[in-house]
Amino acid sequence: MNVAAILKDKGRSVCTASPDASLLDIAKALAEKRIGCVVLLDDDEKVAGIVSERDLVRTLAGNGPKILEQPVAHCMTRDVVSCRESDTIDRIMAQMTSRRFRHMPVVENGRLVGLVSIGDVVKQRIAEAEMEAAAMRDYIATG
Ligand code: AMP
């Protein structure tokens, strides 16, 4: 099973913003869309960074509420680890676990084409396990 299977299920829309967007705008987007991260795109639509709720909380705690007026570029992670549609779910799960993050943008030919979260990965894994169990039950029942 690969990343393409997850995108087929959940769709390809990603919440994005400019690195010039304020932290308050990012906080509003996270709250309104009930999501955990926003991908920041530069003027050429290339991934310039990622900001998650954790970055926002850490920045707020360290600087106070005035920081909310500042651009998200101050606190985004610039060194973004992305994946491809052909990557296996096992591979991205291993990366998320070892690098301790919960989101991975999907990039093809330099373009953002989707986003996979740890929640999507777990959901896919559970569906796979249920299918295997059903096939096993069927096999035992029909002899
Ligand atoms: P998260 O677990 O996604 O809330 O993110 C935890 C930390 O990792 C935050 O500092 C994020 O900016 C960063 N982060 C999240 N996703 C990625 C990614 N795909 N590549 C690099 N850093 C990331």
Structure description:
With 143 residues, this protein is an alpha+beta fold. The chain has one domain (3-142): CBS-domain. Helices cover 46% and strands 18% of the residues. It has 5 helices and 5 strands. It has helices at residues 3-10, 23-33, 53-63, 89-99, 118-142; strands at 16-17, 37-41, 47-52, 103-108, 111-117. The strands form 2 sheets. A 3-stranded mixed β-sheet has the order 1-2-3. The protein has a two-stranded antiparallel ribbon with strand order 4-5. A hairpin with a 5-residue loop joins strand 2 (37-41) and strand 3 (47-52). The radius of gyration is 18 Å and the shape is elongated. The structure holds adenosine monophosphate. The site of adenosine monophosphate has 14 residues, from strand 3, helix 3 and strand 4. Adenosine monophosphate (AMP) binds at residues 36-37, 50-52, 54-55, 77, 80-81, 101-104.
Question: What would a concise description of this structure say?
Answer:
46% of the residues lie in helices and 18% in strands. It has helices at residues 3-10, 23-33, 53-63, 89-99, 118-142, and strands at 16-17, 37-41, 47-52, 103-108, 111-117. The radius of gyration is 18 Å and the shape is elongated.
